[in-house]
Amino acid sequence: MTNQYISENKDRFLNELIELLKIPSISADSAYKNDVLNMAKALMSNLEASGADNIELIETAGHPIVYADKIIDPNLPTVLVYGHYDVQPPDPIELWESGPFEPIIKKTDIHPEGAIFARGACDDKGQMFMQVKAFEAMWKSGDLPCNVKFLIEGEEEVGSENLEDVIKEHSERFSADVILVSDTGIMANDVPTITTGLRGLSYVEVELTGPNRDLHSGLYGGAVVNPINALAEMIANLTDENNHINIPGFYDNVEEISQEEKTLMANAPFSQKAYCDALGIKDVDGEKGYTTLERATVRPTLDVNGIWGGYTGEGAKTVIASKAFAKISMRLVPNQDYNRITDLFKSHFESMAPVGTSVVVTPHHGGEPAVTPVDSLEYKAASLAMESTFGKTPIPLRSGGSIPIVAMFERVLGIKTVLFGFGLDSDAIHSPNEHYGLFNFYKGIETIPLFYKNYTKLKSN
After folding, report:
1. In what side-by-side order are the strands of the sheet with 104-106?
2. What is the pLDDT of residues 363-406, one digit of tens each?
3. If we measure between CA atoms, which residue out of 182, 184, 129, 174 comes closest to residue 148?
4. Per-domain residue ranges of the chain
5. pLDDT of res. 59
C-alpha cells in the first residue's frame, strides 16, 4: 500500500520539493529573515496536508523551529525526525550554471535519471522532505506502524545556537525512542551506506593586530611586523611536515579505532584515482600513516576556512595592513571535548603571536563527536530497510562531517540517532551547483517506511 501511494504521487512530491527550493531560506544572512520564516510556514502547510497533528512554530532567539507529530498509540515506539529547512548562502553566484533558487532538473553522468539543481536540494531540504513524504505515504495508506514527531529547525547552517535551549525547555514534547536524521549520504547509488559516526567541531575566528593603522609599505616595510605575513606563518606552524597538528594536548584523548573497524573501512569500495579525478587533483594529502578514508572520517583535522586582510581590490595599493583575520575549523573524533580543544587552540595560538602584535581568538560554535553502535536495534532496523530496497547489505561507515546536535540529543534527551541519509559526495553541498539525484530522493522515500516497520517490530520483541 505504501509503495503504491508513493508511485501514484511521486510527481507531486517532486513538484512540492521544487516549490520549497525556490525559497531562499539563508539563515546566515539577516536580509533573508522573512524568507526563512516563509520557508517554515510553507513546511508547516505541507506537514498539515501530509496528515500531521499539533503543528506549531516554536519561536527561538533566532529562527523558529517547526514541530509536528502523529501519536497513534502512546504504547507504541516513537520516532523523532530531525531535519533543517535553512540553507547555506549560494556564493559565489557566478559559478552557478543556473539560479541557486531557480530549481532545474538535469541529467548527469552520475544521475542519468536526472538530478534537481538548487541550493538546499540535498542539504537538507531534499533529504528532510523525504521524511515528510515517507510519513505521508505511511499515514495516507494506513501503514504507519508507530508514533512520529518532527523537529525541523532553521539554524543548522549557523550552528543550531538556540536548539539546545528549546530542547531543554520542551524535553517532554521531544521525548522519543530514537531520532531519525537524513542529512548524510551513501558511498554510491549501488553501494548503500549507513553513517555510524560523526566528527565533532571547534570553529574559531582569529584576529591579529599590528600597527594602529594601515601603513605605507615603502616607508614602513621591513621595520614593523606585517600582520598578514605573521598570521600566515602562525597558521603554517599549526601543523608539521607530517600534517600532524602541533597544538599541545590536542591528541591526548583521541580514540584509535579498532583493527576490526580499520578492516571494514579498508574493504569499503573506494578508488583513490576516482576520488582525485572527481576533485581535479593529482594526489591526496593528509596525516602521515593513515589512509584517505581514515583521514577523512576517524582522524582529527585543522583547516583554514578563510583568510583575509589588507587590500584585495582591483589594482595596487601598497599597504601593510593593521589587521589580518582567519577562520579555522577543527574536526574532532570521539573523546575530544570541543570546549577543551577550543581552549587549547586559543592558548597555543596566543602564545605564537610575535612581539609587536596582539591576537584575539573568538570561538564561534562547535559540537561533540557521536557514534552509533552497529549492534544496536536502531542500526539493525536501518540496515534491514536498506537491504530490502537496494538489494544488498549496507556498509557501516563513519562520516568526516559534523552534526553537533546528534551528541546534544543523546546528552539532553538520552536518545540515540540513526543517520539515514541518501546523498552523494558529488552532490556539491555548500558549493555552487548543489544537486540531489531523483533516484536518491525517491529511494529515500521508499526506504524510510521500512525503517519504521523494522524498528517497531524489533522494539516490540
Report:
1. 104-106, 115-117, 435-437
2. 988 888 888 888 899 999 999 999 999 999 999 888 888 787 88
3. 174
4. 2-198+369-460, 200-254+300-365
5. 97
Parallel, antiparallel or unpaired: strands 200-209 and 115-117: unpaired
Correct CATH for 2-198+369-460 of 3.30.70.20, 3.90.1300.10, 3.40.630.10, 3.20.20.140: 3.40.630.10
What is the distance between the alpha carbons of residues 214 and 267, in angstroms, rounded to a whole number? 55
Q: Give CA–CA dist 323/325, Å, rounded.
A: 7
Q: Which of 126, 141, 79, 51 is nearest to 381 (CA)?
A: 79
Whether residue 455 is predicted with pLDDT greater than 80 in this model: the reply is: yes
Domain over 200-254+300-365 is classified CATH 3.40.50.300: no
End-to-end Cα, the chain, rounded Å: 25
Give me the chain's average pLDDT, please: 95
User: Which cell goes with 51?
Assistant: 496528515
pLDDT, position 461: 81
pLDDT(80) > 90: yes
pLDDT of 216 strictly over 90: yes
Residues 198, 333: Cα–Cα separation, whole Å: 8
